[in-house]
Design a protein that fits this description.
By secondary structure, the protein is α/β, with parallel strands linked by helices. The protein has ten helices and twelve strands. The protein has a single domain, classed as TIM Barrel (Alpha-Beta Barrel), CATH 3.20.20. α1 runs parallel beside α3. The protein is globular and about 50 Å long.
């Protein structure tokens, strides 16, 4: 069991580090004026990846904060997952050129299968898709329009199209510290054995992270909980390592039972 990778989030609006509630930019709160310095703090705290969203780009439909993305990448030397406004091939290429290790096509790209196919052909594992949902139904056009399609069905479709990383954001609790609902993700996991599943939205406690790890998720995006101090990154990393260790020990015990000689003596 490889374990749950934690992705501290940096949401960019006007060049500053912001946090949203339920995906609503009108209620965005400033947490820091220096995103590169925030990124460096997460690296020092043990982060192995960062999750960066260009909120200006998401609203405009094209990237607006790639210079800040480059500054973050240069400052920390860690892989960075970048999303926001990546709706055409040139935008994806620009984000990768700015240093993104992986890019997130947003939900609006779901209607452009040709774009998805071209991006997967050119960049393969560096392409991920963000699946934003409310009540198990995927949303479209950023956060402003309900599409009404099952998020689980969309995930299976995307995996069948060759997408190897999916980010699931539950917008209902996103940014509210209300806790995470792992039920759908736990049910979905067996259907997507070759897909990296990353959860976002409402993650507030060590119990949330333990539940995601035990459900077989590959990653979790941490936002408001880190910025408001309800979670420390060090404590979160320790908790998911403990779950991984438990799973490894349980697997070793099963292997030991399987290899025990149970043949009866004559």
């Amino acid at each position: 069991m490889p374990g749950l990778t934690l992705y501290p989030a940096i949401d960019l609006l006007g060049g500053r580090c912001m946090r949203l509630r339920q995906g609503d930019v009108t209620g965005a709160e400033v947490f820091d004026d220096d995103p590169a310095a925030v990124a460096a703090r997460w690296r020092e705290a043990g982060a192995q990846w960062l999750h960066v969203v260009d909120l200006d780009g998401a609203l405009a439909g094209e990237p607006r904060q790639l210079a800040v993305v480059r500054a973050i990448v240069d400052a920390i030397g860690l892989p960075v997952q970048v999303g926001g406004g990546l709706r055409v091939e040139a935008s994806v290429e620009a984000a990768l050129a700015a240093g993104a290790a992986r890019v997130l096509l947003d939900t609006a790209a779901l209607g452009d299968t040709a774009l998805l196919g071209r991006c997967l052909e050119r960049w393969n594992e560096r392409i991920a898709v963000s699946v934003d949902s409310r009540g198990g139904r995927v949303t479209a056009a950023g956060w402003l329009e309900m599409a009404g399609v099952s998020a689980a069905d969309v995930a299976v479709y995307l995996a069948g199209s060759g997408v190897r990383t999916l980010l699931f954001t539950d917008l209902a609790p996103d940014g509210t510290l209300a806790g995470v609902d792992t039920a759908m993700l736990r049910e979905l996991r067996p259907s997507l054995p070759d897909t990296r599943l990353i959860a976002a939205g409402g993650i507030a406690s060590l119990d949330d992270l333990r539940a995601l790890a035990r459900a077989g998720l590959d990653g979790a995006v941490l936002g408001r909980a880190l910025y408001e101090g309800t979670l420390s990154l060090a404590g979160a990393l320790h908790a998911v390592r403990e779950v991984t260790r438990e799973a490894s020990n349980a697997g070793a015990a099963v292997d030991a039972l399987d290899t025990t000689d149970t043949t009866e003596a004559p």
